[in-house]
Amino acid sequence: MANDLIANLNNPAERRKSVRLRVRPDLQSFEQKYEGKTFTVIKDPVCLRYYRFSRQEHFVFGLFDGKHTMEEVQEAFEEEFKPMRLELADLEGFARQLVTAGLVQNEQPGAARHLFERRAKQRRMRRLATVSNILYLKIPVFDPDRLLTWMYGYLRWVFTAWFFAASVGLMLAAIVHVMLHYNTFQAKLPAYQEFFTWNSVLYMWLSLGVVKVIHEFGHGLSCKAFKGECHEMGVLLMCLSPALYANVTDAWTLADKWKRIIISFAGIYVELVIASIATFVWWYTPAYPTANNIALCIMVLCSVSTVMFNANPLMRFDGYYMLADWLEVPNLREKANRFLNNLFLSKCLGVDVPPEAYMAPWRKWLFVIYAVGSWVYKWVVTFSILWFLADFMGPKLKVLSQMLALLSLASVFVFPTYKVIKNIRQRGRLPDMKAARVYITLAVFAAFVAAFFFLPLPVSRVHETGLVAIDPEHLEGVMLSEPARLVKLEGASPGQAVRKGQLLGTFESTALEIELAKAKAARATQQQTADMLNKKVLKAQGAGDAANEQRFLNEYVRAKAQADTAERDVARLLKRQIGVRELRATRDGTLITAPKRDEIGKLFDKGYTETTPVFSVGDPLKLVLKVPVTPYDYRLLKEDLTVRSELDVSVCVKGRSDRTFNGKVHRDKLPAQNAATIPLALSQRGGGSLAVKPNEDPNLLAPLAQVYLVEVEMTDPDTAIDPGQLVSVKIHSRWRSGAWWVARELSNALDIGLY
Asked: 20 to 30 A Cα–Cα from 76, which one of 7, 55, 533, 559?
């Protein structure tokens, strides 16, 4: 039917004779003010769509009553708005838009069928858009208008002045409380690895669902409070987390834009109230871990995430609709994108586009900036979420994170590409392009593509966290020969200069003392036995008893040998005792590590006899960095170091923003194989980023994923850099193209082994 009607509009013979349009009788109209002018909003109750008409457009719209022909409508318009003229071509174009939108019809059979076909097509397009965005799924479920009416009867007190004052006071109290105890507040916050545990994420997942349900009912009840309607609620899967959504588009029927802004802000306001309550609950419940963790999750969700996502106008959430209402620009994103698209078509391709309605210059720049900013921010948010999911799921759930990444990338590229191709095919604009502008645009595009593939850029840097250590060639450890207990420290502390042979500490081994006591007792017994047998030999010799003399002599020889062995055992144990009791510096230098005073009396077990020195002496200005790199980065460094003998390194030290330190990665210092163990400081237990797996020996930390420990030589350290400190490291690899970087990042993210 719609196609027949449009064909009639295009038929010159029927144009002024037979075409009569009738506005659907079920449409609803509401007046609004925009920049001091009166506009009429038309509500389609079937499709739940809203259209805004100027005074002239609404006048023409009202003449489509099934009685006036196109010519009569034209004459009535020119009579009403003298001396304005209305061309029939423009009138027919306006009529086509109304027919396509389903707002007008004629008396031909099938008009209702066209209306419902259009509604079905809209539903299909919404489903396609929903499936195309895996990180933001909206599934309509029910009409909540009656439920909201019932709830509003019991909750109308929420919209009173005293509740507003009390809730604002609560939020201010929470903010003041945090500011007055900021240092303590910051200290109580868990680290990233502690916060994003499976338990915390489960709490956040459940809390987000509950909070978003309250959030959306805040929108719906606010709309109901201002006499609006809400006819759609459903399930929202935002970043795979369940929530609720409410369609309060009916707010566009309200003439007062501040009421519309309040409806959009209601959900954020509710979450800020919940965050304020959760702040006090978290602060005063440290003795109840479960309640404390849930309150912390709710506090973060309802404050930080709400401000970053819901209040952000660059995303199509509450902040977007608040900005659109404040600027009085409905469909801000669509208009901004259309304006930018038309600007490209006009300036770059020479395509004639319909002229925009009057728009102040600052609004034109606003549209361009907003379109570009929202597009860039969408990419940033998408990849940030994908990065977080990949980091959180880890190697064990790598396949799931890869599937999410592929689906999200497909939604970013495939659906927009499909819409662009469909738009070009429908409009048929290719023949209308101006050749000169097309060639210039293609040349510029080709230059960008060539630069993307061939222009060397500093995109191949390796950014990691490194551990400061003394160069092993300039460091000697003083280790115990066997487990012993610290008895006394001889005054030297880390950072002090020591001389070779200087006494550092006195130790005592209980096991060695017991063994030495036993050896001395055995020596005394063996010596006593040898002395007794010697006396018997002398006595038998004096008595002339040759037989007994020989027998006692043989026994004496054996006893004497055993006594000598016992003596040697005692001497050996005494030497061991001296070696354990006194630990001395093995070289001149600076004492780098040493036990603390409160460790006197501590037993230093076998770990300090095999792997960990008790004291270490070295040169504090001969520093290296232990930098863990992934296999991808290791292959990159190995490839570059086959061309160069060394690579430059930049080092940023926390608290030293005044300068950047330098270093080198040498070809001969690149490890031949991956690290079997890592230092504690580089693990999540010690404040680093590497996850470790369980090990039989708790003193040995094995990385969960494969890493290589690359050694970086610092070329300009100073005494303010301490061994054991974590620093930010950037290794300068050879420059490569942007295409190389994109391919490598995709390969790393999806683990497809291209690089």
From this structure: 7
